[in-house]
Design brief:
By secondary structure, this protein is an alpha+beta fold. The strands form 13 sheets. A six-stranded antiparallel β-sheet has the order 3-2-4-9-6-7. A six-stranded parallel β-sheet has the order 29-28-27-26-25-32. The protein has a five-stranded mixed β-sheet with strand order 43-45-41-40-47. β28, α14 and β29 form a beta-alpha-beta unit. The longest helix has 26 residues. It starts with 12 loop residues before the first helix and ends with a strand. 47% of the residues are buried. The structure holds beta-D-mannopyranose. Beta-D-mannopyranose binds next to loops. The site of beta-D-mannopyranose has 9 residues, from loops.
Length: 935
């Protein structure tokens, strides 16, 4: 076939690659001339193809002849009318819903003055909770303790309906498919009162040919959702093994596990048409999938295969054309095929010389190659479709070494240390997540120097938009299949379901360069030892283990190697792929919950040397503004009020936070101080873990902390709250995940100053290490030039502790070591080391002077801050005003003023009125924060 990278001028390439949308009930508009210029315009020179075919040294003479014929065919095809035959009709309007069987449960809804058994307008895609909320049939599920009052919804049955107008044009097509991209979860679909589909899982698309069920004019479409609780119980009852294995009924219905509640999430088991629905009408053939396989990608050449799947009803001669390129570099290739009735695979090899490679954030750019495919039969364009990808090579390297077996991602030949956090669903009700929310959270991840997230398996496969953004931002994804913690059934039907789900999701997502690994599940492998399963009879356990292995190392492993063969697969997180007991340090990935669940001190992180850490974490409360969004004043008396406990989903979670707090600090003086101090506690704790993991490179090659985001306002392990607001941990992450990190560490009677570099080339810098008293006296000041080794962690300076304790006036509880790494006199990383445990650090009461002034740009301000003594964890807040300073939760060194920029639409006056500047001592001291708000 024909690899082409001609650099052929293509005036309207971008628009050619824009997929045509068709709204309403009109037919597809004929493509504008040149819309798909591979075929329709003179811009596609068959001569070029001809020359190229001749020049292909690897082609056999037979294939050369075929290609010449193809070129002539394509040339002839330049004259065809460019009208795609396929018609796509979104089913997004006219929907209504109601509770199906009015019964006693309706009373609960009626209490707010309405009756859910009446028909009400509904939004598709959506879910029943959001429809009830929009129609004011229920109160805000996130407010105070409303969650408990809304549990009746999961036990009710729900019905949705809309009307489809079938036009003669629509009915004139050979096939009319009714497509649901997602139904949550058990549903019966009726068209004109005929049952046309029974759906029983949330994670797959449904497509049925309804041509013979449609009549001209109005057709009624109804979707009935029986209670998911009852539906799951009914399916579970069919498994003869269940009595013995005691697998939970809910797992038999493939549905997002977090809907049933999690240790950070409320229980809202919902129902609904949660992904778009449409009618798709087509004649002879349609493009049902495009895969861009990356067989071998280097900076010299990318060998790709465009695999186009064409579904055809009657077969026949066709031409498949693929246009591709990255900004400014279009090229195209085409081939003639004879389609068989059914599913056809058309393979188009593409070689790109000197490709622009896609890199994780921090390592290079993220160019996205676009592919436009057109299917032509006779004189018609039957269908067109687009795909995109970034070109990169990805290897999960697992080589025996002195510590066991490595676990590192090699991207374009670079061993990349994975820095990031685990991602959970962005909302308890996924369909209301906005583009802005996705963008804010993912941009915040990159802003904190993350290059990787783990997309955790207890939620749902995200939208295309989410993955597109990760591609665009250079965020590598560890992608779990959606199996979270629970032991999973082994029933035959269930496994068939899983097989279909894996195929569909892999096909949907496999072109995303951001997905660097597929993983079978979250914590199911380790769950064999949970919930007294070790007490089950040996034969039952044996059967369960066989079922487990057949699903997670059989079905899913096979699906990945079949549908995404260039992407690594891993059976579970955590796992050692059965080589050794998981959670050990020799092999595989680790979840370290000794801190928090195991209640050990944060410093214990340093005792563990995993090969790749995929979870570790500690909780904090969100900031006051977020807490105010779901509380009234009486809920904010302390962290143990009923409403605060309703927004803490880990049993004893608030007590765990308090206990850890009291190990390191005094009791915070009031509720607001507790929220603030909890964030400091979390950030300081995770910093210990994260810096240890980075210093431990190359033995450890990943630090993914639990967790990035929240699905509602709650006390949790997140570093971004439900509203995307940065907690202290997120500011800390930006520092401890910096591309080059200076990390002073006390070990073996010394202070060892490490520098960890993720850069691929050496960096020349100055390392400055000072020892200061808290009131600003310099006890020691050393500077030395350093040539920082790329992709490494090394000690660049060692100071014996004896030298430090011998310094005149040295009181270890009142001094701090400050390490700065300077390039061109500007710090690229700064860090501090205290010499005694946190509880013994004797901080003086800090009085911070602040001055807020307008900057030159409108809406920009400068905040000038200074303190005569060390002020730790300085926190600047503006109440309910939207104003985010460039940094927060930072230490202000004695006598060293700083200027922070901030942007806000608020006026200077309003900002000054609401501004509060505190530091750590203010959270515990008996007096109010000593703040001068400037004038
Ligand atoms: C991990 C996760 C989640 C959970 C978190 C905190 O194991 O996989 O299931 O939310 O711990 O407990």
């Amino acid at each position: 076939m024909a690899p082409i990278d001609s650099g052929r001028p293509e005036p309207d390439w971008e628009s050619m690659l824009v997929r045509r949308e068709c709204a309403g009930f009109t037919n597809h508009q004929p493509a504008a001339a040149g819309h798909f210029s591979l075929v329709t315009g003179i811009a596609f020179p068959s001569l070029l193809l001809f020359c190229f075919a001749i020049s292909q040294s690897r082609s056999s003479s037979l294939s050369r002849i075929r290609f010449v014929l193809l070129s002539l065919f394509v040339f002839a095809a330049n004259t065809v009318a460019a009208t795609a035959q396929k018609q796509v009709i979104p089913l997004a309007s006219g929907w209504e819903f109601h509770q199906l069987i009015p019964g006693p449960l309706v009373q609960a809804a009626s209490s707010v003055g309405n009756d859910a058994s009446q028909w009400h307008p509904a939004v598709v895609p959506g879910c029943v909770h959001l429809d009830l909320l929009r129609n004011k049939l229920i109160p805000d599920p996130f407010y105070r303790d409303n969650e408990a009052k809304l549990q009746w919804i999961e036990n009710a049955d729900w019905e949705y309906r809309t009307t489809i107008q079938a036009t003669p044009v629509l009915l004139g097509q050979k096939h009319v498919d009714l497509v649901f991209e997602g139904l949550d979860a058990y549903a019966k679909v009726y068209l004109n009162d005929k049952l046309v589909l029974t759906a029983d899982k949330m994670f797959r698309e449904w497509r049925i040919n309804v041509k013979s069920d449609l009549k001209a004019g109005a057709n009624q479409l109804r979707v009935v959702f029986p209670s998911p609780i009852k539906a799951a119980a009914d399916i579970a009852a069919n498994d003869p093994w269940r009595e013995r294995t005691r697998v939970e009924a809910k797992t038999y219905l493939r549905k997002a596990a977090y809907e049933y509640g999690w240790d950070w999430g409320p229980r809202f088991v919902t129902s609904g048409i949660w992904r778009p629905a449409r009618l798709e009408a087509w004649n002879n053939a349609r493009i049902s999938d495009i895969q861009v396989r990356q067989l071998d990608v280097t900076s010299a050449v990318a060998h790709l295969l465009a695999e186009v799947e064409v579904t055809s009803s009657d077969g026949g001669n066709a031409a498949v054309s693929v246009g591709y390129g990255v900004a400014g570099k279009p090229a195209s290739v085409s081939r003639a095929v004879e389609l068989e009735p059914g599913v056809n695979h058309v393979t188009v090899p593409i070689d790109i010389a000197h490709p622009q490679l896609w890199y994780p954030s921090g390592y290079g750019a993220q160019p996205i190659y676009k592919f436009a495919v057109q299917l032509e039969m006779g004189n018609r364009i039957e269908d067109d479709a687009t795909a995109k990808t970034g070109l990169r090579s990805i290897v999960l390297r697992r080589e025996p070494d002195q510590w066991g077996r490595s676990f590192e991602f090699i991207v374009n030949g670079i061993p990349v240390f994975g820095k990031g956090a685990d991602v959970i669903p962005f909302d308890s009700f996924p369909t209301r997540v906005t583009t802005q929310q996705y963008r804010d959270v993912l941009q915040s991840a990159v802003a904190a120097n993350m290059n990787m997230i783990r997309h955790w398996g207890g939620g749902y496969y995200e939208t295309d938009e989410f993955y597109d953004l990760c591609d665009e931002l250079g965020i590598m994804i560890w992608q779990d299949f959606m199996f979270g913690n629970d032991w999973q059934p082994g029933a035959y039907d269930w496994k068939l379901n899983v097989t279909a789900e894996a195929e569909q999701q892999l096909k949907r997502l496999r072109n995303h360069p951001s997905i660097v690994i597929w993983c079978g599940n979250n914590e199911t492998e380790v769950a064999l030892a949970w919930h007294d399963r070790d007490k089950l009879p040996a034969d039952v356990r044996f059967q369960m283990w066989q079922d487990y292995v057949s699903t997670f190392s059989g079905i899913l492993a096979a699906a990945v190697s079949r549908y995404a063969p260039e992407t690594p697969y891993w059976p579970s997180s955590p796992s050692a792929d059965y080589e050794t007991v998981n959670d050990k340090y020799q092999s595989g990935d680790m979840h370290d919950w000794t801190v928090w669940h195991g209640r050990v001190p944060f410093t214990d992180y340093e005792k563990h040397n995993p090969r790749f850490m995929t979870e570790y974490g500690f909780q904090s409360f969100p900031e006051m503004r977020t807490v105010e969004s779901f509380t009234i004043p009486e809920d904010r008396l302390n962290i143990f009020t009923p409403v605060m406990l309703a927004h803490q989903k880990n049993t004893a979670g608030n007590a765990i936070i308090r206990d850890y707090m009291l190990r390191d600090y005094p009791q915070p003086k009031d509720f607001a101080s507790f929220l603030y101090a909890s964030q400091v506690l979390q950030a300081e704790g995770i910093k210990i873990g994260a810096e240890h993991l980075r210093r431990n490179r190359p033995r450890t090659m990943g630090s993914i902390y639990w967790q990035l985001n929240d699905c509602w306002p709650v006390a949790s392990w997140s570093s971004l709250d439900y509203y995307g607001r940065w907690k202290a941990l997120h500011y800390y992450a930006r520092r401890f995940y910096a591309p080059i990190l200076v990390s002073p560490h006390q070990e073996e009677g010394n202070v060892a100053v490490y520098i960890v570099s993720d850069k691929t080339s050496p960096t020349v810098a100055t390392l400055r290490v000072r020892i200061l008293t808290f009131d600003g006296k310099m006890l020691s000041d050393k500077s030395q030039p350093v040539q920082i080794t790329p992709l490494s962690s090394k000690v660049y300076l060692t100071m014996p502790m004896l030298d430090i304790t011998n310094l005149p006036n040295c009181d270890l509880g009142k001094i701090v070591l400050v390490a700065d790494l300077l390039v061109d006199n500007k710090p690229i990383s700064s860090n501090e080391l205290f010499f005694v445990p946190t509880k013994d650090v004797q901080l003086p009461q800090a009085t911070i002077t602040s001055d807020l002034t307008p900057a030159q740009r409108s809406g920009a301000y400068t905040l000038h801050l200074s303190s005569p003594v060390l002020a730790r964890n300085v926190y600047v807040s503006f109440g309910n005003l939207d104003a985010k300073p460039a940094d927060n939760y930072f230490d202000l060194l004695p006598g060293e003023a700083i200027d922070l920029t901030l942007s806000s639409a608020a006026s200077l006056d309003d900002l000054k009125k609401s501004m509060r500047v505190i530091s750590l001592t203010d959270a515990f001291a008996p007096h109010e924060a000593t703040v001068s708000a400037g004038n």
